Amino acid sequence: MHPEIDTPALLVDLDVVRANVTEMAKTAAAAGVRLRPHIKTHKIPELARLQLEAGATGITCAKLGEAEVMADAGIDDILLAFPVWGRPKLRRLAALRERARVRVSLDSPEVAAGLGRLGGPPVDVLVEVDTGQHRLGRPPGRPTADLVAEIAAVPGVEVVGLLTLAGHAYHARTPGELAETARREGADLVETAELCARDGIVLREISVGSTPTARHVAGVAGVTEIRPGTYIFNDTAMMRLGVATEETTAARILTTVVGRPTPERVVCDAGTKCLTSDGYGTPGWIRAAGLPYLHMNFLNEEHGVARLEPEHVGELPVGSRMQLIPSHACSVVNLFDTVYGVEDGEVITELHVAARGAVR
Ligand SMILES: Cc1ncc(COP(=O)(O)O)c(C=O)c1O
To answer: What would be one Pfam family of this protein (predicted)?
Structure first.
């Protein structure tokens, strides 16, 4: 299995990537909404370009550093889905605005005031709404409508819409619960925008959606934009939610078996340094592609320790290779400088993870 590559390594199946990108673009087009993928999953300008060529109208970034890398690559329509605060970042934002259309999400008049002092044309902002994750934002309805009015009064910014991430959808226990959370994600924002309109503030953008909710929320009347990110690679978290299968997961950690201390125990060279601790310990949080009878027991920093079911104890001698499907693709990609792109089972390209580590 890819003897030309030393392990551990991050592989990405480009055929699966293309299929995932196309499917989400079709979902957005069928619902009549724009697709603005979150690039935090791949952090690779070439893959952002692929998403744009497939129909995305812009991209979403969390960090200014990610946005700068994407603008360097010629991408000129960027949503910064994170409040930009403090002089150093505001200076960088001003420079970024010289070469790209940038809008920013926020949830306070304080952050809006900083943006308003940038000068130049008003900064387009989206007000973040808390639809149940309890991260940023006020609850939908009157609390958000009042916040929109406060922010709209700040000179130098223009409130163009509302934004939410229904992050609690990642904990949905049934497909029905997931669908209902997604429907509410859209409906909450649309109803809040109607309230704002009655207050005299017309909002044109309703920006919602993650990989688990995008396919449901895209169809809610009034939604204008979806922002899924993980869908390009998928991971075991998406498999658990029923929105991905092993076949639609594109990112794999190629790892070598380095120890077989007991008949059932398999120790490989991929630990938390490759796979992170995200999802740690949940059954099925790390899966071995094509090996449903191998169960990851635990990870140390350098070691992955797994167990074989009794009827398979003779398999996977020292030196064998496996491909592990991560629990959280986005944070795994952040750990690698290079992604090996695979097509028809062959490594055909090396992609530089240009926006990795962009914490600021
Ligand atoms: C603001 C925002 N939008 C969109 C996304 C994309 O969600 P997902 O990776 O589940 O597709 C995220 C993920 O963290 C996010 O924080």
So the answer is: Ala_racemase_N
